[in-house]
Amino acid sequence: xxxxxxxxxxxxxxxxxxxxxxxxxxxxxxxxxxxxxxxxxxxxxxxxxxxxxxxxxxxxxxxxxxxxxxxxxxxxxxxxxxxxxxxxxxxxxxxxxxxxxxxxxxxxxxxxxxxxxxxxxxxxxxxxxxxxxxxxxxxxxxxxxxxxxxxxxxxxxxxxxxxxxxxxxxxxxxxxxxxxxxxxxxxxxxxxxxxxxxx
Length: 199
Description:
Blueprint: H1 6-16, H2 23-35, H3 38-54, E1 56-57, E2 64-65, H4 71-74, E3 82-86, H5 89-98, E4 104-107, H6 125-133, E5 139-142, H7 148-161, E6 167-170, H8 186-194
Parallel strand pairs: 3-4, 3-5, 5-6
Antiparallel strand pairs: 1-2
Helix pairs in contact: 1-2
């Protein structure tokens, strides 16, 4: 026996398909949508459709944009000799928030993960190699996450870039600011020691 109308159950199922949304949260969101005024619900639906219709990948860096070329690639004031390689578009936002990097980006849209059946051909490595093959890039900064998949992806790409005579670097990582040494694990301490610099 069905407790709720079919349309409400379908809406709940759609919310539950979103990452990080469980059954109860999906149901709460569905009820919230029903309580919205019709104009607000239509505005919400229109925002989704507009994003789907207008947002696409930048042909240069593979970041999300609603323009022909994204604002970062289009900015003449940026250092065009350095590319920072990240896994996801949200990583570009994180890097830009720091206001320290003034080069260009390349978004892979994933990392190599054999357990999840994601190989090198499933992410945007080919486009990166094409960009670097033009011969204007002097450094590639690998800024994938410091986990197993991120490390494997960084190492795989660095091996591909070695014959191209481009400098490949990795973001330094170690002890987070504001934390205490006693809570750091061995790998984090090792990375922090390896990445130490003069002060």
